[in-house]
Prior knowledge:
Layout: H1 32-45, E1 49-50, H2 75-78, E2 88-96, E3 113-122, H3 127-141, E4 149-154, H4 164-175, E5 187-190, H5 192-195, E6 196-198, E7 206-216, E8 234-248, E9 251-265, H6 266-273, H7 286-296, H8 304-325, H9 334-352, H10 359-371, H11 382-412, H12 416-419, H13 422-436, H14 440-449, H15 456-482, H16 491-511, E10 519-522, E11 527-532, H17 539-554, E12 559-565, H18 566-571, E13 585-591, E14 600-603, E15 618-627, E16 630-637
Parallel strand pairs: 1-2, 4-5
Antiparallel strand pairs: 2-3, 3-9, 4-7, 6-7, 7-8, 8-9, 10-11, 11-16, 12-13, 13-14, 15-16
Amino acid sequence: MVRQGSAKPLFAGSIPAQASKNYLLVNTGMKSEEILKKYLNYYISKGHKQIPNVSLVPEGDSTLLFVNSGMFPLVPYLSGEPHPLGKRLVNVQRSLRFEDIEDVGNTNRHTIAFHMLGNWSLGDYFKKEQLLWIYEFLIEGLKLDPNKLFATVFAGDEYAPKDEESAEIIKEVMKKYGIDASEGVRIFPCGRKDNWWQRGESIGELGGPDSEIFYYVGEGSYEGKSPSENQDEFLEIGNSVFMQYRKIDGGWEPLSQRNVDFGGGLERLALVTQGRKDIFETDNFWPLIDRIQKISGRDYHESSEVKRSMRILADHMRASVMLAMDGVLPGNKDQGYILRRIIRRMIKIGRNIGVEKNIPSMLIDETVSILSWLYPSLKDKETGIINIFSTEEEKFFKVLSLGIKESEKIISKLNDKDFNDPDKLADLSFNLFQSLGYPPDIFLEDMKNKGKYIDSRGFNKAVDSKFKKHQELSRSGSEMKFKGGLMDQSERTVKYHTATHILQRGLINILGNHICQLGSNITNERLRYDFPNPAKLTDQQIKELENYFNDIVIRKIPVNFIIMPKRKAQEIGAMYLKNESYPDEVKVYYIGDSIEKAVSKEFCGGPHVQNTSELGGIEIYKQEKIGDGKMRIYARFK
């Protein structure tokens, strides 16, 4: 079953009433809620249908830790599969890009968690409509100053020509507002690195030129300045990707279905609409910054270091709460490891501004207030999230306790020569961090507390170098993992997807109708399925489940899908996630000759095998308890 989002998405015209506090904001202008409502309504008026805001955790996809853009759920449809809602789509999608974590706090714009506004044309309209509409929305809908809007387009290379068409369209659009959008004045051609998008390097991947939209946020005159050469003074607020090519051996060929994929950051649009220079002074972050000021007794503007600390805390709180909302728990691998690292980083950062403990817990209610207009059900989860964060903080203090003892042992063995060797100290600190999670900055404090002179700058530089090498290794591993594309649709993974549907039906038959999907994960080697149950499966129940599955394989049952009204799908008993929101038209996969007599039928985006005979026998090789009344099983083909 494809997860459609763990919190109810916002639909235009039905935004929940704002129940949060009246914030004391320093900004003026349109609030983020109004920006989003205007955006959705504008594109709905152009014939677009809204699709859900799905979970940050990619369901059934082991190639990516987090949903990192609005286009993630649409990969199959950009490749030609028909979407149940048609060819024009719009949404807002929560996203997380952990690779940007080191930039957070150092600039006025970087965040790891954000919301992406998106609109798509799946083989329908193309450059003319897209560029006309997005500029019209920004200028007339959000009242942005057209004089401060700048664009970049693809300059062309040996694989694809210069995007003259987009440049000419933008010129005509801007002429409507009395703006001279000549090349080199308002429009700037850039190379493949800046203005070409592609999903991956493999043969068959989609790609094409893009046109980025920048807004001038600098001081003084913007005449004669280009976004690429004055990056601090310009803010990218949107990007229209024109997917019109497919990668072939040695180059690119034109696509028969030309797509549009637009993405624009809601938080960045709030920055420019509200007339701010700093994203952390918008309604998305300032209430948190203000709370941090009160807790710490410090002022956001008192120094660059205090400002950096408060930015990190505000950004990481939003990211942590959204991850917890989507069911992620702190742990030692995958999404859980990232959440643990973010929470522990907040605890460390809190020490920089004099808050020794409980900083995540003290900021949760304000974070929930900021986000609850978009995720009303988040309020019901607030107590649970507080407990999760408090438990993690207790664990981290135990790490600190163990680390202090180990740190003292290491320091006691060092001589004066060692204390003057930043590289050696960095090695020791990095190893301590790798083994116990003990932070290098605290190790540095420990050494200074012994009355030793330490070259802090040299130590920090050496530690940064080691962490960067470690990150590069991790990133290269992630890139290798990512090369297959955003969604792993290998033959074996598709088989495991179908197997998950069959196992869910088998569990219901054996254990009862309380069985439903709490989470799942599919790799090329196995499937994982989480479900509510008071106890683990007995040996007899495991045997029954395996026999049920293998019988379905032997019976050679066809697997089909149908696109139908959501209400009718519910009436005929198709399974779906109860707390999710679905479009009015849904895709239902069923295993059987007819949907009425199907073995299994579920709301699902696919893909699946065509017949159960394509599957092999299966074994349940592992199970575990993952919480009160929550179980997890692992299965693989024999």
